[in-house]
Design a protein that fits this description.
disordered C terminus; alpha+beta; globular; Phosphatase 2c, domain 1; Heat Shock Protein 90
Length: about 350
């Protein structure tokens, strides 16, 4: 099995030119703290600078820059996500060409970002703003999936309510390294927000990490027992069976108001959770089994994100990198008075990075 460990993200609100330098310093500092060499740190700083500059130039209301460091399969990487509600792009393909600009600049920003990125993707449409995703690896990317193994491509946005340093939401995953092994996910939303909520959510992560090979129902029961004496949390555990398992399924158990969905095309299937709070009061823990469709997408989000969304309202978004799906849902449906998490996992045949980087 291969672990994927999320590291606390960095976030900056971009509204004017002073935030551009802040974004550059934030990216460079994060990379240096992770052991990136000077070249890779400079590349990340350049990408953050260009993305923040684009927000200032094109989005009158400002936007968000989110940096997430992570480790998977022994490889360390950094994701940079830029989100705005600006006018959007009339033609994404044209906007990616060097020399194209609508703001009087040299028009090389997006092209440079794409060339520097190990993975790159972009989602935009007129009137729907813009979301840009870039990924860099410290050194080499993780080893490719074994032959016949369809990996899950995973990304998340997980941020505290404005004004708090500690995030009361937390998530974790454990990825199957072989085709017959399942990939497990856990999302916890500590009651309320602030340090006590973060303590409960992080404790749920620690319990999950020790028991990720168990079934979702067993994991949830252990989390409920382990959170006694804490603030308590809404918790959901999902487990997607490996590619060698037929038919493929999703096992799911949840308590509290974590929203879980399986999406495929225009179809969506809501995952059932029981009322309650892990660590405080849980009337029933039950594991449900759902079919996993070919090309399926799993979405889990906390109640810091409203539920009245549909990917069909964003043409082409369902085919984009999970980071863009998570980012757009966070951007447009975040509830400003709570911690917010969106976790997205979708099938990847191992060439997602190359496909995403193609013009």
């Amino acid at each position: 099995m291969a672990d994927s460990a999320p590291i606390f993200p960095r976030y900056i609100r971009v509204e004017d030119s002073s935030n551009v330098g802040e974004a550059r310093r934030l990216a460079a500092g994060l990379c240096r703290s992770l052991g990136f060499d000077e070249t890779r740190s400079a590349q990340a700083a350049l990408i953050a600078t260009e993305l923040a500059s684009n927000i200032v130039k094109h989005a009158a209301g400002g936007g968000d820059l989110i940096l997430r460091a992570f480790e998977i399969g022994g490889a360390t990487g950094i994701d940079i996500l830029a989100l705005d509600r600006g006018p959007g792009m009339l033609n994404v393909g044209v906007s990616l060409r060097d020399g194209h600009s609508t703001a009087g600049s040299a028009g090389t920003g997006l092209g440079a970002i794409r060339r520097l990125s190990a993975a790159f993707d972009l989602s935009s449409a007129p009137g729907q703003g813009c979301a840009v995703f870039s990924r860099l690896w410290q050194d080499k990317p993780p080893a490719p999936a074994a032959a016949g193994h369809v990996a899950l491509n995973v990304a998340a946005v997980c941020l505290p309510v404005t004004g708090e340093q500690a995030c009361g939401d937390a998530w974790a995953m454990r990825a199957g390294g072989r085709a017959e092994e399942a990939t497990s996910f856990m999302l916890a939303d500590g009651l309320g927000h602030g340090p006590d909520a973060a303590c409960a959510a992080n404790l749920a992560v620690a319990i999950f990490a020790k028991n990720a090979l168990r079934s979702p129902g067993e994991i949830l029961h252990l989390i409920h027992e382990g959170l006694h004496g804490s603030r308590g949390a809404a918790v959901a555990v999902a487990q997607v069976s490996g590619a060698a398992v037929a038919p493929r399924i999703v096992r799911y158990a949840g308590v509290g108001n974590i929203c879980g969905l399986i999406l495929c095309g225009a179809a969506s299937h809501h995952l059932a959770s029981y009322n309650g709070t892990a660590g405080l009061e849980v009337h029933k823990i039950e594991e449900f089994v759902y079919p996993w469709p070919q090309g399926g997408t799993l979405v889990l989000h906390s109640d810091g994100v409203a539920t009245h969304w549909a990917l069909q309202d964003y043409p082409g978004l369902a085919q984009k990198h999970p980071a863009l799906i998570a980012g757009v849902l966070f951007r447009d449906f975040q509830r400003p008075r709570d911690d917010s998490t969106v976790l997205v996992a979708k099938e990847s045949a191992g060439n997602a990075a190359a496909a995403a980087a193609a013009p």
